[in-house]
Amino acid sequence: MNQAPPDRHSPGAFLVWGVAVAAYLLAVFHRSSLAVAGLAASERFDISASQLATFTMLQLLVYAGMQVPVGLLVDRFGPRAVMLAGSTVLVLAQTGFGFANSYELAVLARIFVGIGDALTFVCVLRLINAWFAPRQIPLITQITGPIGQIGAIVAAAPMTYALGTLGWTRSYVLAAALSLVAAIAVLIAVRDEPSRRTVRGPALSWSNIKSSLGASWSHPGTRLGFWIHFTTQFSSNGLGLLWGFPFFVRGENTSEGFANLLLTVMVLAVIAAGPLLGWFVGTYQWHRSTLVLVLVWSIMLAWAVVLLWPGDAPGWMLVILVVVAGVGGPASMIGFDLGRTSNPVERLGSATGLINQGGFVASLVLVVAIGIILDAATPGSSAAYTPEAFKLAMSFQYVLWILGLVQIWRYRRKTRARLLRDDPDYWGQISGRGLS
Ligand SMILES: N[C@@H](Cc1c[nH]cn1)C(=O)NCC(=O)O
After folding, report:
1. What is the distance in A from the centroid of ligand 1 to the CA of 204?
2. Residue 201: DSSP 8-state
3. Nearest C-alpha to atom 7 of ligand 1 is from which residue?
4. Which of 82, 140, 248, 274 might form a disulfide with 254, Cβ 3.0–4.6 angstroms?
5. How is domain 214-421 classified at the CATH fold level?
6. Where are the alpha helices (H) located in 33-167, listed in sequence order?
7. What's the fold here for domain 13-193?
8. Is the minimum distance from the CB of 149 to ligand 1 under 6 angstroms?
9. How much distance in Å is there from the Cα of 15 to the middle of ligand 1?
10. How does pLDDT run across 153-190, given as a tens digit for each residue?
11. 121 in ligand 1 pocket by Cβ < 6 Å?
């Protein structure tokens, strides 16, 4: 007889989750710790703006490229071991970045920051699945994403202060020390499952890898998760990671102070929206992708108003834009919920890794495309980009949205059909509350 799923989390779940989320928050902190150090980095390594942007692009590239291997590692060695490796790599990489005295060494260190960062998030989701009851998982997952994003805020002011008072090397070594504390906490407090400190999956042979990835990817729910992640988060990532500040200041003629305020409001919207979306996803499972469609249309509409506004869009409209675009961040977490309900727990790592590539690939394409369009639309080698060039560059987002929406539409139909085929009673079990 099938056992009913537990209704409550296991004892100790919040301790394990708290430590894992702290390690993830620190990973986001390291990911973002260069954003405020741009000027100091330019001076230290004697580099141009495009060399500086290379750091961000490389980090995104490494992060996205690592997701599938990381997912496989989590399924093989369990989240505890992989998370421990992630925190350790971050300690070494940030220390290396602190001592790097050439651009090449700094790039190498940043690549390892990307690797350590990539090793963390998939583990957190796997731990949530092992420790919480199925009905709690959507909410806890949705809260996790935004809490992690607080790392980006924490990176801003304290890092600026540390760089100003302690100098480059000591600031980055101090930042590295935080992840050393996280590594020790993971070692002591995290267990892969309530009943076992460590779990081990099948050996990583080619045939196992092929069958695990093949099985995850062939389920339309994993693909739907990928395209949801792809379509929802690139707009806020593009603004937050690189282009938001220059777009507001040069493209919309705001003051620098207001541009910073807009980026802060965006992070606050991310944090506030997480629990609301978590509640919705947990309550209306059947309507997960409908919510995503409505949110993506809203983001597209807000951008259309700003880009088509004659002259500069008013400040209040820019506030609406960052709030609506910001909600896309937590909305991308819905992709992971699709991965969860479409894959058995032994394949959750690889499914999560596949899905998590989506948003970061889209963000990378956007960040690069905006740079290329800005350069092409600006005469000579000048970096004095005009508002018109910015409007054209930001319009590139519609290419990604249209591609993403078509794929979401296709795979949501297939996912619904597959879930009902696998379990004809699925609708009966969740009706009134909700599918994809
Ligand atoms: N979508 C993000 C998380 C998020 C939640 N709210 C805003 N952003 C995501 O994919 N996270 C993975 C990671 O490593 O950060």
Report:
1. 27
2. -
3. 329
4. 248
5. Growth Hormone; Chain: A; (1.20.1250)
6. 38-45, 49-77, 79-99, 103-118, 121-131, 137-165
7. Growth Hormone; Chain: A; (1.20.1250)
8. yes
9. 21
10. 877 778 888 888 999 999 999 999 999 999 999 999 99
11. yes
